[in-house]
Amino acid sequence: MSLYKQLENAKSEEDVKDAYIKALGLKGVTKGLIDIQTHEIWFEAKDTAKWSTYAMFTQLLHYVQIALNKGETVPPLLAVIDTQKAALMKTADVLPFVSDGGGLRDGRELRHTATG
Length: 116
Description:
Blueprint: H1 3-8, H2 13-24, E1 36-37, E2 41-45, H3 53-69, E3 77-81, E4 86-90, H4 91-94, H5 107-115
């Protein structure tokens, strides 16, 4: 069955995760607080398309911040998926927006980082 068909029939977040794991041939997968986790990529998954990619990436970046605060390694790629859309981002592109000690930087720091 195609990924499209599996997502069309998905009844839960687990169905969405399993469909993407199978379609992408992911190996060494852990499922937990981070919905799908490998050494190469972390996914945030939702079982409906009502969440924006922005909202899903915000949640995933929260987990990236927690990992960085603990001194853990984060993967080179981040992805968000649901039954109708998927988006991918290089972790390195968002690391400048994550502070060293506690959460996403406030607007002043973001503007400062973006301008120089």
